[in-house]
Q: What sequence folds into this?
């Protein structure tokens, strides 16, 4: 059993390249492509040994898929094109690799962790979408640091420049 290097729970998408081209390769209609290409998804991943529970959440559509490494299963791809495929997820080194056999050739995804990012490549025919997701806890920590720096800088400025404490409406 392999364990992903990062504690994966709630991840927010920070980049999404070439998703519309993948959707075109899957024959997804124009209106759905336009809506889906502007969504900011959240991914929830829970690993229990070789079993994975995953959720992809957005304001448009939510999708859940659970799988066991090395066990093929029938999947209804409701998150994208709503086709039935036979899905198999395996490890290739430190990458999870998914092959989806069905109507469309060369279909599936790969995901792996580098640093504090979860990378996801979605493939359909000859098109590849590249996404990066970051743990919500990491994003909140960065936001806290920026907030702290901003507040600290403002307090230092006020303490070093007494005139900055004066009310600009009242004058000196």
A:
């Amino acid at each position: 059993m392999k364990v992903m290097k990062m504690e994966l729970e709630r991840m927010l998408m920070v980049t999404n390249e070439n998703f519309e081209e993948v959707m075109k390769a899957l024959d997804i209609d124009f209106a759905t492509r336009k809506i889906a290409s502007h969504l900011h998804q959240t991914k929830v991943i829970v690993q229990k040994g070789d079993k994975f529970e995953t959720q992809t959440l957005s304001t448009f559509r939510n999708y859940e898929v659970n799988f066991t490494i090395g066990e093929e299963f029938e999947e209804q791809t409701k998150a994208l094109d709503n086709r039935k495929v036979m899905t198999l997820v395996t490890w290739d080194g430190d990458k999870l690799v998914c092959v989806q056999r069905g109507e469309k050739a060369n279909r599936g995804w790969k995901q792996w962790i580098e640093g504090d990012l979860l990378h996801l490549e979605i493939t359909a025919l000859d098109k590849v979408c590249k996404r990066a997701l970051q743990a919500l806890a990491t994003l909140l920590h960065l936001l806290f640091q920026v907030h702290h720096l901003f507040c600290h800088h403002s307090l230092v400025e006020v303490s070093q420049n007494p005139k900055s404490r004066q009310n600009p409406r009242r004058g000196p």
